[in-house]
Amino acid sequence: MAEENQTDAAAQGGQGSDGPEFSMQKVFIKDLSFEAPGAPEIFLKEWKGETGIQLNTQARPVGEQEGVYEVELGLTVTTESNGETGYLVEIKQAGVFIVRGFSEEQRNQLLGAYCPNALFPFARETVADLVLKGGFPQLLLQPVNFDALYAKHLKEQQEGSGQGQGGNGAAVTASENP
């Protein structure tokens, strides 16, 4: 009987213990948009794509249970060719996470960096698929160092007026030209 209880607790991810608990419960697309404002004329011109990326993360508690959070990764990808917008992709990739038993600092790090890092591959795959289906050359988004972006956000928050999201996430932006 004791073995069954231990097995049940292990199957539930240690929910019966008082230790920290972290798990991803659900991953979903909250919002999605693809625009190709210059099509079809842009397909007749030489392609010289320059891509800009903006990232934004948010976290908020959801439901009645303590320690349940929605983390949202906003990603905007704009690619121009010869000064003309080829396409614009906007996605809000979200997930529901259980984060319990951690210090406030650890929880904020998980919600502001670790969770967006876990969501990014899902968003990256969706963006790549949309770009190809839109008739454009393949786009492979490079990995993002969410830990560094979160640390930068914290530093800016400490140096600035201290306004922000109350430590529940990181609002960050980044640009890159692959």
Automatic annotation (TrEMBL):
<feature type="region of interest" description="Disordered">
    <location>
        <begin position="157"/>
        <end position="178"/>
    </location>
</feature>
<dbReference type="GO" id="GO:0015031">
    <property type="term" value="P:protein transport"/>
</dbReference>
<keyword id="KW-0963">Cytoplasm</keyword>
<dbReference type="GO" id="GO:0051262">
    <property type="term" value="P:protein tetramerization"/>
</dbReference>
<keyword id="KW-0143">Chaperone</keyword>
<comment type="function">
    <text>One of the proteins required for the normal export of preproteins out of the cell cytoplasm. It is a molecular chaperone that binds to a subset of precursor proteins, maintaining them in a translocation-competent state. It also specifically binds to its receptor SecA.</text>
</comment>
<keyword id="KW-0653">Protein transport</keyword>
<dbReference type="Pfam" id="PF02556">
    <property type="entry name" value="SecB"/>
</dbReference>
<dbReference type="InterPro" id="IPR003708">
    <property type="entry name" value="SecB"/>
</dbReference>
<protein>
    <recommendedName>
        <fullName>Protein-export protein SecB</fullName>
    </recommendedName>
</protein>
<keyword id="KW-0811">Translocation</keyword>
<keyword id="KW-0813">Transport</keyword>
<dbReference type="InterPro" id="IPR035958">
    <property type="entry name" value="SecB-like_sf"/>
</dbReference>
<feature type="region of interest" description="Disordered">
    <location>
        <begin position="1"/>
        <end position="20"/>
    </location>
</feature>
<dbReference type="GO" id="GO:0006457">
    <property type="term" value="P:protein folding"/>
</dbReference>
<dbReference type="GO" id="GO:0005737">
    <property type="term" value="C:cytoplasm"/>
</dbReference>
<dbReference type="GO" id="GO:0051082">
    <property type="term" value="F:unfolded protein binding"/>
</dbReference>
<comment type="similarity">
    <text>Belongs to the SecB family.</text>
</comment>
<comment type="subunit">
    <text>Homotetramer, a dimer of dimers. One homotetramer interacts with 1 SecA dimer.</text>
</comment>
